[in-house]
Amino acid sequence: MFGDAPSVTDAQIRAMLGRMSARGGDRLQIWRGGDAVLAVARHEWELDPTFSGPVLVVEDGAVVVAADASVYYREDLRRALRERGVSPAGDSPAHLILAAYRAWGDDCVSHIEGDFAFILWDRARRRVLCARDLGGKRPLHYAELGGELVVASTIGGVVAHPRCPDDLNLPILGATIAGLHFSAGPETCYTAVRVLPNAHRMSWSDGRLHGPVRYWEVPVNAEPSRLSHEDAAVHLRELLATAVRERLQPGAVNAVWMSGGWDSTAVFGAACHVIRRDGLDAAVRPVSISYPEGDPGREDEWIQAIADRWGGAVHWIDIADIPFLEREEERAAARDEPYAHLYERWNGALAAGARALGARVAMDGNGGDQLFQNSDVFLADLFRAGRWWTVAREWRARPRGGFRPFFKWVIQPNLPEPALRLAAWLRGGRRLKHYLERPIPSWLNPEFVARHELEARDREFLTREIPATHAGREIDWHFTSLFVSRAFALITGFALREGVEVRSPLSDRRVIEFAVSRPWWERSSGKETKRLLRRAMHGLLPEEVLAPRPYRTGITGGYSHRWMVEVFPGLLERTMREPLVLEELGIVRAEELRRACAEYPRRRDAATRVGLYYTLQTELWLRARRGNASGSLEKPTNATVVAAATVAI
């Protein structure tokens, strides 16, 4: 909290931290200094220097930092700091962030590689600087309260401030039900609270907010890599090995959440390779979910083959032991927002599996899909470039044919705005939908949708209008979408709850910058995808794992579908015995919701499945909030509030 005169009591600050107890609570520090208050809570195990470290709030001269951070490539950063004549006062991430600020000012974020959210208070300039990492794995939320700033890791931490209004943001509730992109930010379910986007920084001084400002762009227009395919594969292998090495906890068991696909297996292969090659004092074990034979999620045989290749044992988790729907009212009451990750328990089970091995670090394959394969929109680029024979060859290799999908992927992305308006007129006012657009559920009240312009608002959060190819814009979207970064932050939170920190080597900035410089055909060509990543793993993973597959594997939709057919209808019917809060608010139509639930087993479409799930979770959250509405903190006697750099970290 930052303002003119601190007025929030320690008890009130502890209450704010209490709303974020899953993010830390064993150690706590409240720092006060004139115009600012910073408070940090941290788990005991995070005091290890390979995590956020033993110092909760770092103060060096006029600069104070609270950080939720794991910093990688520390030697490179120290070298760059020495060149600027700056020596960190300590080795924790917060010390390094403070030193980077002394060296580069606000641009320090461009020199820090890692997973981080931090709050920096410059007393001499009476100025705050806040920032988040590229992927948004560490969350940060804020509210401006009458010329004062409150910042916290979670929405709940901000709302718990005694002067923060808790008015609901109804359009965000509707967008959450529909799974619309803008439901993830920068607005939140509370009108007063906003989320700082990933790869953004913001500052605050003289009672005014400056930003947020994007500090990193996905280099989709960078100079193309001129390496041959073979040389590029060798280079990628080394980049990934280094990214893994930077994320390993030395002297400990490290887990890899491993499916049988090509992303997490690449992380595991690179980890085994670099540990053996460099003689590192670390171990790595796969944690995997086993599906029954015939299930679309089953990849057990490939997983076992990889473990056998490296002489390790898999820590198996049976999918039958992971409930998809259970104690939903209790879960909703514990959440800060209506949105619930579809696979929260699935990710939580992986984190618990890692902890059962004694691991505090779990690495995953997040980033692989975004970097090493395309949707079919790359065909629109080839068509626009006049490479029609190539388009024809690639299209013939696709399993789906016909004019409609061809028009959607190849023609429509190249249509100018006047042509799109003409098409809408010819279709009786029905627009041609962008391929990333989400459908509005049939049970959302049309009047609510129209009044709040949900569709128009969501289109603003599709691919950005940057000078790039269609495929380049898609890659850019993957790394700038708040919907994606929210998922990353939530997964990090699920793991933290189990005592584990998730790290993603494939989302390493150096890996990203190299991967986006490579040609389209290494991502998707004919019936093959991820050609470069697979080639980079040659010799590290069994050939049967790396071979092209005749059909997609590792699909988790079968797991959620079974629960939505067998359990969800009863849960929804029980919930609807009382009037829906969502219907009272004019957001949904109950009878349409019932109809969609009844039709889902026949339709089996993912949009309906996800929409039904989000609707139930939003309703349960609203009911829990209504039940807890009477509890509030004592308000401070003065209007000024200081800095809850309540990074509850």
How would you sum up this structure, described in words?
The structure is a single chain. With 649 residues, this protein is of the alpha+beta class. It folds into three domains: 10-214, Aminohydrolase, N-terminal nucleophile (Ntn) domain (Glutamine Phosphoribosylpyrophosphate, subunit 1, domain 1); 229-372 and 480-546, 3-Layer(aba) Sandwich (Rossmann fold); 557-627, no CATH class. It is 41% helix and 14% strand. It has 27 helices and 18 strands. The strands form five sheets. The protein has a six-stranded antiparallel sheet. A five-stranded parallel sheet has the order 14-13-12-15-16, sandwiched between helices. α5 (170-178) packs antiparallel against α27 (606-627). The longest helix has 22 residues, at 606-627. The protein is globular. The model is unreliable at 630-649 (pLDDT under 50).
